[in-house]
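Hi L.,

As promised, CENPP protein:
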Amino acid sequence: MDNSICQVYEDEIQSLEEEIKLLAEKYEDSQQESTFFSDEEILMSIKSFQREFQGGSKGRESLSDLKAQLESLETDLSFLMKFTGIQFTSHSKKTVEKTRNRTVRKHRLSGNCHSLSFQLEFQLLEMQNKESVSAVISDLSIIMESREDSDVSKFVSSTEEQGNLLTFFRSLSSYAEWYEHRRCTFLHFKVMF
């Protein structure tokens, strides 16, 4: 058999093995998520949920009120996406550790801000006290398509070290807006000459 044909088959086999590995990990994650709760806890939650809704609609909002709230939230979300330019395209989370007062989840986000795409991966540690819940971000990893710019590369590295997502999204919104303006300007001059 020709070496190039063998290589094509080997590449296909490797691709399929990687896909099987990813699917196995997803399956394991979903199994792990469901095993954090015992059968008793699940039954208690179901019974509590049933009691809550069988008790009538006292103090409950009507369906039309809920629909109005949903429409309001969708309007707010649309406004924020237009205002910031940030649009999330996917999100996944995996519970790494869960105890009574502490939960560690691994999050993966991807999206666009104007014409720049980004991907984030981080761990979120949530600790619950009697009065409040606190959250700490760790292991932040940011992938952006325009990392060839040294200033962006420095900014991304600094943000990864600090684990400050708010600063990242604020700066990304501003940078991406001006990046888009520069790109359009250069395209305009490129077309002219």
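Residues 85-192 form one domain.

Thanks again for sending the construct details.

K.
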